[in-house]
Amino acid sequence: MSGLQGFLGKLSDPSSNSDSTNSAAPGRSAAHNVGIKKKPIKGWDDDDDDDDDGLRGERITQTATTTTTTTATTSRPPPSSSSPQPSSVPSFPPAPTSQTPPSPPPRGPLSPLEAKFSKILDEPNVNLESLKAAAWCGCPESDRGEVWRLLLGYSPTNRGRRETVLERKRGEYWKAIEGCGLGSGGDEHDHPGITKTEQVLLRQILVDLPRTAPSIPLFHHPSIQLLLKRVLYLWSIRNPACSYVQGLNDLCCPFVWSFLSEHTLSAQSKPITKGIDVTKEIPTTTLQHIESDTYWCLTGLLNSIQDHYTPNQPGLQKQVYTLSKIVERTDANLSQHLTSHGVEFIQFAFKWCNCLLVREFDVSVICRLWDTHISEGSEGFSVFHVYTCAALLGKFSEEVQGIHDFGDLFQFLQGGMKEKTEAWGEEEVAVLCSQAFVLKSLFQNSQAHLT
Amino acid sequence: MATRVDEEYDYLFKVVLIGDSGVGKSNLLSRFTRNEFNLESKSTIGVEFATKSIQAEGKTIKAQIWDTAGQERYRAITSAYYRGAVGALLVYDISKHGTFDNVERWLKELRDHAEANIVVMLVGNKSDLKQFKAVETDEAMGFAEQHNLAFIETSALDSTGVDTAFQRILTEIYRLMSRRNLAADEAQAGGIKAGTTIDLNKGTGEKKGGCC
């Protein structure tokens, strides 16, 4: 495998793509420079005329669907960003592509990267392939929220319909929250409307909430804790085959972070801070939108990896197994080193796959990493992720091979990674993604090599 | 990280930390091994691991402690770590009776997946939350006696009982192991003492000295 290692080494040379990913043109990371094209992912793209908004597997409340159908021929309500009222679920007619969409809001001076995204996002019908290609290399923070909503199939590509559809989906969320018997009360016993099983579920969520991203005060703000509680609870009761699994709370964080960031940048022209006072700085309506968007986007993400969280977690176990096989093939020394010291992949990579690396990186870095994953379509977290893990392990291969005590090895792989990635920026993530892409290109269609 | 020479030890004992989620298993481990406590540490996903060596009856015992995730969903993963464990700290939260009610289920987990003669200590954690005490000491002690478990109350927050808990279980394991060796000798001579109830499996306590 020396050829591959040489190739990967070359890719990891910062000089080879030092300024490519942040610039508007060509804006390509190393993977694109090597001329490997990504296949369009089937079965994930949001069909523009599809009322389902691409969120397959999600049960939409009967009431909401009925309302939509019966009022579908009425005139289009004006796009509004007002607070979603569960009682007034908006509707929309099919939007002809030739219509003139409302003008996009004016934007200040844009960086080249923002200009590039602006061009794609301001189209009357967003071209998802162009968006994926651009987002693969990282989104500007100001557009990340919108890009994720589009790529996760929640927001429609047609700009004329976007506000209306989002408003409807947001309304559906709040209606569902109203119907699930969850108030804003304290512990699991404060919700008399819920069953015994739901109490157990709620207890588990409540135990984990204060332990979500402990180092970031924003996630401990009462409004955000309540937001997380409702999102996780609703997702869990609507997906009983999985229900709540510890670590799902971590998966909400990049969404909340990105959507909040989108708001602070557009409304206040300042980046989000970890200690932001949500009550003071974020209007209630915006927070409600962020909550429902988090729910729908989390749903979109988890739909592709449901078997990570069903009993015995088969999807996750398979991913860990695949990871061990990839490393065995690409870095035999590392693989042997781990084996000879009694370290099993399941012992550390389980968390990597369960929490999708959220615990291994700072929240801003994980958002950038997820840009790529989400751009990979429905295979982003079910397939591409395992190659990212392999690339991550490869990045620290030498360091890991320098540790010869089981405890120290375990410590490094389990928690030490976060310290190492603390200073990471765009460039390191771009290299990691490129390496993951190369590994995927090599192995994904040669599964026999991974058994 | 530089290569670290293994410290010398006479025995290596594998111990697991089990119990409902949120009872403070990870903090018990971090308090014992690193003297650290974090009020809002992250939930454990899968397992975590740490080691610490202690002195017991003139011997150096290295404890290899596996901290497991408490959620039911992770049982399939975590129960694999019971294999080879000679001790288990079964932790509940003294301020949440539900976590004590589940102790019996955890004992069953051990019966199903761990070695038959594993030494189990029932640990009532968060003893600093006196005003919220929901599980009386007598109740827990009675349960422990009934099920032949050692018992202690601890607070990972203010350190009360933490070192004692680990020290006691490791010493107990060591004593039983010595007694087992003695019993084996006696068995060879033709008599087994009736009181020898715990027979640690061979190979669990590995005698080792110097670096690898």
TrEMBL record, chain A:
UniProt GO MF annotations: GTPase activator activity
Any one Pfam family match given in the protein's UniProt record, by short name: RabGAP-TBC
Start-end of Pro residues biased regions: 91-109
SUPFAM superfamilies in alphabetical order: Ypt/Rab-GAP domain of gyp1p
Compositional bias of kind Low complexity: 12-26, 61-75
Domain Rab-GAP TBC intervals: 138-377
Domain of life of the native organism: Eukaryota
InterPro entries per the UniProt record, alphabetical: Rab-GAP-TBC_dom (IPR000195), Rab-GAP_TBC_sf (IPR035969)
Segments of this protein annotated with the region Disordered: 1-113
Segments forming a coiled coil: none
Stated name of the protein: Rab-GAP TBC domain-containing protein
Automatic annotation (TrEMBL), chain B:
Keywords noted in UniProt: GTP-binding, Lipoprotein, Membrane, Nucleotide-binding, Prenylation
Domain of life, per lineage: Eukaryota
Location, primary (coarse class): membrane
Coiled-coil zones: none
Membrane topology reported for the UniProt record: Lipid-anchor
InterPro entries tied to this protein: P-loop_NTPase, Rab_GTPases_membrane_traffic, Small_GTP-bd, Small_GTPase
GO MF terms, alphabetically ordered: GTP binding; GTPase activity
Subcellular location: Endomembrane system
Record Pfam families: Ras
GO cellular component terms attached to this protein's record: endomembrane system
Family: Belongs to the small GTPase superfamily. Rab family.
Protein name as it appears in the record: Uncharacterized protein
Species per Swiss-Prot/TrEMBL record: Triparma strigata
